[in-house]
Each structure stands twice: as C-alpha cells, then as structure tokens.
Specification:
The protein is α+β, with helices and mostly antiparallel strands. Helices cover 40% and strands 27% of the residues. Helix 2 crosses helix 3. The longest helix has 18 residues. The chain starts with a strand and ends with a helix.
Length: 220
C-alpha cells in the first residue's frame, strides 16, 4: 500500500517564498503538477515519493526542507506507536507505518538466554516480527508506560518508561515489569527503536510459566 503523508503546509509555503518561487515554479522544479503542490500547501496528504521530490527541489536550490518532519513533533510520531502497544496490536508495524522509516532499525537489549526475542530487527518487516514475538510471549494486563509524565523528549530523541503488567502463559501473577522504550525520530519518521526490559524479572516469569506447565501435565 502506498504511504501518504501530510507536510507542514506553513513551512512549505515559507520555503517557497524565500526563493521567490510561485507554485508553478516549484511544480516545475519538482517535476510535479501545480495541483499537487497546491494540495500539499493546503495541508492535504501526498505520497512519500511526492514529498521527496519537493524536498529535493528545495535542497537543490540551497534551501533546507524545513517543512519536514511530516508530523508536528517527535512525541506525536511516538504516540501512535504507544497507543498500538497498549492495544496489544501484533500488526503494530502495519498500523503505525505512516510514522515508521522503511530503514527502521529496532533493538531489544539483552541476551536471548534471558529474553527470547532479544536482538536486532531491520526494516518494517523486522519491526512487525519483533512485536509478534513480544505479544506471543507476553499477555499485557495493564500498566503505566508513558503515563504520568513518564516521557522525556530531547531534540529528536524520545524516551518512555513505566511498569507494565506482563504475564507469560499460565505463570502466576507477578509484580509489574519495568519497560523502557527509546526512539530516534528524523523528519517525522521513527528511524531507531530500542526496547529494554528487566532480564531478571523476565527470567522469574519464564520459570513460573515452566512450573505451571509441569503442574498441568497428567500425573504431575
């Protein structure tokens, strides 16, 4: 499915005015029709390829493409991912694709002996695979990740933290688990993601899950 974006219309117009260009001039430089340029300046959505053509036209003329990022702030880009996470959306990468870079690099810190899905995941398919593994292992029963001002924004970096109620299979209820998510956002798209979980707490949950499975076996 083609991805559509909404440019910052005010900054787009100001960039064009700085060069003394008309909409027709911008359309000519970008290889687009005037109608598409007018739509972008009115706040309408355009295809990623169209946004790149407009950005390249300005950069070739020596003007930074300040009308990117596509969303208002790095925090807004992260918010849709947080909402999908709270809904335990296994298709999180598809749901949030408008704010994800095609070259996204995601990492779950730790060793696979401690965290079964630890490692590096590349691109949108990798990000999809990460969350399928996460929600296959964990059943989210609530938590406060990113709530109560548990968010820090520094430039293009966004950090969320909180304690999440994550149950593994039939394991007994356990205290909330500390979860930290770090994002780097460039031009409105998340380009790097890092997930950190408490490995000791996960080991306890995995042990409890194994015990619960043994007790369910006939004759146990």
């Amino acid at each position: 499915m083609a991805r559509s974006f909404r440019l910052n219309a005010r900054l787009l117009r100001e960039a064009r005015w700085r060069l003394g260009w008309s909409q027709e001039d911008l359309a000519s430089e970008a290889g687009l029709c005037v109608r598409v340029v007018a739509k972008a300046e009115a706040g309408g959505t355009v295809l990623l390829a169209t946004a790149e053509r407009i950005a390249n036209a300005f950069q070739a003329a020596g003007v930074a493409a300040d009308f990117l990022p596509i969303v208002g702030s790095p925090r807004e880009a992260v918010e849709s991912i947080l909402q999908a996470y709270r809904l335990s959306d296994r298709q999180l990468a598809t749901t949030c694709s408008p704010v994800l870079s095609n070259t996204l690099l995601a990492e779950v810190t730790g060793s696979r002996r401690e965290i079964p899905f630890a490692g590096v995941y590349q691109g949108l398919l990798g990000f999809e695979r990460l969350w399928k593994r996460f929600f296959t292992l964990f059943h989210r029963e609530g938590g406060d990740l990113g709530e109560n001002e548990q968010v820090a924004v520094a430039g293009q970096q966004v950090v969320l933290w909180g304690h999440e109620k994550l149950r593994i299979g039939e394991s007994p209820a356990a205290p909330p688990l500390l979860v930290v998510m770090q994002f780097r956002v460039e031009r409105g798209l998340v380009r790097h993601f890092e997930l950190t979980l408490d490995p000791t707490a996960i080991a306890c949950r995995l042990h409890g899950h194994a015990d619960a499975k043994r007790k369910m076996r006939p004759g146990a």
